[in-house]
User: Which sequence fits this backbone?
């Protein structure tokens, strides 16, 4: 009877021992399972964990970040440059300013100045940069082109640029979220810290993370505004400034232009030769020259030594 009771009792004691060991064993720390709540308080409160936490949460691979949002909306910064000839540059500039105001845009910069024509006349020229809503960029360009009298000859140049910043914008947003999460976790860690030095170190880490957050917000805002508002730079030239000088069938302006271009090409070739001489020929010739000079110096000393030996060994002439 006692023997039958002893075996179940022994098994129960062994089971209780196993359960006690399992309960006392340290639990697995897995941020994926429980986030910061899975860490014991004595481990979380360590100040050395704060920089590691912020670094791990704030910085990730840019390629992984971009792959997380394959369906993100494209972020394209569009801008344009025009150079046109108008009868009155100041009136054309005022019209462009009114155009920006009408389209709920704004003027970034404007510059109106006096220049002199080859005939000696004073005329106005100017440059203006405006920003208009990106969806109305083509409309704004059409209305600016309408300021010229002859689109064939009075539109000197027109360039439209596009810069895709989708990847950079997505990366900034992901880094911002990670930094905000890191800041929140650092606040929780600071609440659980008890030692003054721990609180101070975590506070410094939190301040650095907040500074990075403000920088990222500024970059994100810049991208958003650049994508939403396209920049248009217009160069305004007066008709008198571009009118050719004609004497009969001969145009000295064209000859002068060709001469200036030939002179510039000659100076470019001369400058290229000097650059090659300074950056390529001299660095190559200098060590080669040193080697040649050392060989020549050694050969000269060898010849002098041979002559001295010959004078010693040669018998004196007979009297």
Assistant:
């Amino acid at each position: 009877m006692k023997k039958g009771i002893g075996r179940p009792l022994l098994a129960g004691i062994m089971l209780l021992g196993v359960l006690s060991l399992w309960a006392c064993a340290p639990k697995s720390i897995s941020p994926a399972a429980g986030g910061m709540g899975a860490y014991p308080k004595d481990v979380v409160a360590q100040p050395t964990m704060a920089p590691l936490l912020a670094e791990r949460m704030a910085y990730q691979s840019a390629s992984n970040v971009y792959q997380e949002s394959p369906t993100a909306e494209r972020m394209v910064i569009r801008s344009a440059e025009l150079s046109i000839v108008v009868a009155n540059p100041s009136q054309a500039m005022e019209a462009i300013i009114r155009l920006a105001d009408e389209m709920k845009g704004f003027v970034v910069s404007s510059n109106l100045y006096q220049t002199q024509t080859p005939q000696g006349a004073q005329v106005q020229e100017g440059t203006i940069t405006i920003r208009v809503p990106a969806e109305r960029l083509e409309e704004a360009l059409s209305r600016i082109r309408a300021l010229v009298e002859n689109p064939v000859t009075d539109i000197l140049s027109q360039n439209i640029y596009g810069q895709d910043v989708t990847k950079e914008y997505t990366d900034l947003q992901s880094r911002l979220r990670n930094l905000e999460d890191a800041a929140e976790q650092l606040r929780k860690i600071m609440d659980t810290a008890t030692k003054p030095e721990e609180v101070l170190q975590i506070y410094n880490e939190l301040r650095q993370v907040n500074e990075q957050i403000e920088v990222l917000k500024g970059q994100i805002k810049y991208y958003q505004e650049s994508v939403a508002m396209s920049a248009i730079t217009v160069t305004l030239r007066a008709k008198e400034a571009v009118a050719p000088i004609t004497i009969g069938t001969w145009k000295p302006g064209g000859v002068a232009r060709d001469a200036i271009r030939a002179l510039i090409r000659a100076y470019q070739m001369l400058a290229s030769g000097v650059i090659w001489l300074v950056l390529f020929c001299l660095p190559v010739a200098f060590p080669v020259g040193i080697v040649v000079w050392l060989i020549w110096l050694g050969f000269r000393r060898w010849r002098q030594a041979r002559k001295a030996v010959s004078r010693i060994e040669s018998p004196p002439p007979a009297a």
Remarks:
- Confidence is low (pLDDT under 50) at residues 1-5, 18-69.
- Strands lie at 76-86, 106-116, 122-133, 155-164, 229-238.
- The chain has two domains: 31-243, 245-274.
